[in-house]
C-alpha cells in the first residue's frame, strides 16, 4: 500500500485546480476528456507528466495537476453514507493511539472515509475488521478503499451484520486493541465491545449530538469496566494570509461530531470513584425518543441514489486496478 509516485498513468486519480481555484477530481481514462465552460482538457495530456505539473486546455486555461492527498480523496469520493471528516479521523487515530500492528474493530464502515485512515495507521502488520449492517454501504466503502490504494488491502476484513451479534464470532475475547464506533446508538454494543477489548484497550465513539454523548458516557460508567470517559470535539479554522492581510477565513469547519473515549480495565478491577455533581442517570421512554434517527438528524439515502454511488465507486476502483496493473507490468519488463 505504497503511495503512487512517478508520471501520471491511465487509471490514476488526479486533482485539477483550474481558473479561480475551482477543483476537479478525475480518473484518467483513454480518450477521456474534462469538459468545463473554460474549454476541454484531454486526459492523455496528463499521461506521462510528473506529479505537480501544469497543463493547458483547449482555450489556453491552465490547470495544476496533483495526485490527491488522503483528505482530498475523502472529500471528493462517492458517498453512500455520511463520512467522518479528515479532522475527526485524525483525532481518532491520535486519541485512540492506533499504532502499526494493532487489531482494530470499526463499526459502521459507512463510505470508507475512516477506514482509509485506520488502514494506514495499523499498517500491513495490523488488522482492521469493519462491520456494516447494509451491504450497499459496504460496497461503496470497498470500492473507495480499492480506488485509493489501488488494491484491496489484505489486512482488511468487512463483515456484514450487526456488531453486537457478529463480533464474538469474529475475534477472540480480549483479542482487540482498539474499537471505533461510528453509529447511531453505540451504547447498544458496549458490552460485547468490553468483552472483545484487551485490558488497557481503547473504545472511542463518534456521535453527532450532545444527547448521544451523554448517553454513551453514562453507559460507559454504568458498565464499571472502563476508565472515566473523556469527551471532546475538533474544530478547524483556516486563515487568509496574503502579505500583511492576515485574518481568519470567513468560513470554518466547526462542529461535525463529538468524540468520547475510555480504556478497558483489567477483569475484576473496580474503577476509583470519581467525585462529581449529581446528574440525571435514569431515562424515560420520552427521553429515549431523543435518540431516534430523525431526531438526531440521521438522513436516509434513496435506493436509487445509493446504487448510483456504488456504480461511481466501482468505476473508480476499476481505474485504480488498471493503473496498478500498468505499474506491475512496467516492473516485470524492467526486471
From TrEMBL:
<dbReference type="InterPro" id="IPR049470">
    <property type="entry name" value="TRM61_C"/>
</dbReference>
<feature type="domain" description="tRNA (adenine(58)-N(1))-methyltransferase catalytic subunit TRM61 C-terminal">
    <location>
        <begin position="75"/>
        <end position="241"/>
    </location>
</feature>
<feature type="compositionally biased region" description="Low complexity">
    <location>
        <begin position="316"/>
        <end position="327"/>
    </location>
</feature>
<dbReference type="InterPro" id="IPR029063">
    <property type="entry name" value="SAM-dependent_MTases_sf"/>
</dbReference>
<keyword id="KW-0489">Methyltransferase</keyword>
<dbReference type="GO" id="GO:0160107">
    <property type="term" value="F:tRNA (adenine(58)-N1)-methyltransferase activity"/>
</dbReference>
<dbReference type="Pfam" id="PF08704">
    <property type="entry name" value="GCD14"/>
</dbReference>
<feature type="region of interest" description="Disordered">
    <location>
        <begin position="313"/>
        <end position="335"/>
    </location>
</feature>
<keyword id="KW-0819">tRNA processing</keyword>
<protein>
    <submittedName>
        <fullName>Transposase</fullName>
    </submittedName>
</protein>
<dbReference type="GO" id="GO:0031515">
    <property type="term" value="C:tRNA (m1A) methyltransferase complex"/>
</dbReference>
<keyword id="KW-0808">Transferase</keyword>
<dbReference type="Pfam" id="PF14801">
    <property type="entry name" value="TrmI-like_N"/>
</dbReference>
<dbReference type="InterPro" id="IPR014816">
    <property type="entry name" value="tRNA_MeTrfase_Gcd14"/>
</dbReference>
<dbReference type="GO" id="GO:0030488">
    <property type="term" value="P:tRNA methylation"/>
</dbReference>
<keyword id="KW-0949">S-adenosyl-L-methionine</keyword>
Amino acid at each position: 500500500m505504497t503511495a503512487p509516485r512517478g508520471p501520471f498513468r491511465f487509471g490514476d486519480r488526479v486533482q485539477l485546480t483550474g481558473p479561480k481555484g475551482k477543483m476537479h477530481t478525475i480518473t484518467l481514462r483513454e480518450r477521456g476528456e474534462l469538459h468545463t465552460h473554460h474549454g476541454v482538457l484531454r486526459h492523455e495530456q496528463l499521461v506521462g507528466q510528473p506529479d505537480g505539473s501544469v497543463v493547458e486546455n483547449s482555450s489556453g486555461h491552465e490547470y495544476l495537476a496533483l495526485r490527491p492527498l488522503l483528505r482530498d480523496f475523502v472529500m471528493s469520493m462517492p458517498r453512500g453514507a455520511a463520512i467522518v471528516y479528515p479532522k475527526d479521523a485524525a483525532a481518532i487515530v491520535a486519541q485512540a493511539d492506533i499504532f502499526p500492528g494493532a487489531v482494530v474493530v470499526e463499526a459502521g464502515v459507512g463510505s470508507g472515509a475512516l477506514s482509509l485512515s485506520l488502514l494506514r495507521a495499523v499498517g500491513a502488520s495490523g488488522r482492521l475488521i469493519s462491520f456494516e449492517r447494509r451491504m450497499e454501504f459496504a460496497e461503496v466503502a470497498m470500492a473507495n478503499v480499492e480506488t485509493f490504494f489501488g488494491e484491496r488491502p489484505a489486512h482488511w476484513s468487512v463483515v456484514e451484520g450487526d456488531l453486537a451479534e457478529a463480533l464474538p464470532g469474529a475475534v477472540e475475547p480480549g483479542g482487540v486493541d482498539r474499537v471505533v464506533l461510528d453509529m447511531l446508538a453505540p451504547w447498544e454494543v458496549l458490552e460485547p465491545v468490553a468483552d472483545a477489548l484487551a485490558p488497557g484497550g481503547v473504545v472511542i465513539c463518534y456521535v453527532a449530538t450532545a444527547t448521544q454523548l451523554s448517553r454513551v458516557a453514562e453507559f460507559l460508567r454504568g458498565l464499571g469496566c472502563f476508565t472515566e470517559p473523556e469527551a471532546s470535539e475538533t474544530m478547524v479554522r483556516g486563515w487568509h494570509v496574503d502579505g500583511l492581510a492576515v485574518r481568519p477565513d470567513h468560513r470554518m469547519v466547526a462542529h461535525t461530531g463529538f468524540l468520547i473515549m475510555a480504556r478497558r480495565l483489567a477483569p475484576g478491577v473496580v474503577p476509583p470513584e470519581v467525585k462529581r455533581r449529581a446528574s440525571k442517570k435514569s431515562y424515560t421512554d420520552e427521553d429515549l425518543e431523543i435518540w431516534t434517527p430523525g431526531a438526531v438528524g440521521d438522513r436516509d439515502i434513496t435506493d436509487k441514489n445509493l446504487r448510483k454511488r456504488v456504480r461511481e465507486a466501482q468505476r473508480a476502483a476499476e481505474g485504480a486496478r488498471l493503473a496498478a496493473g500498468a505499474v506491475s507490468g512496467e516492473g516485470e519488463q524492467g526486471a
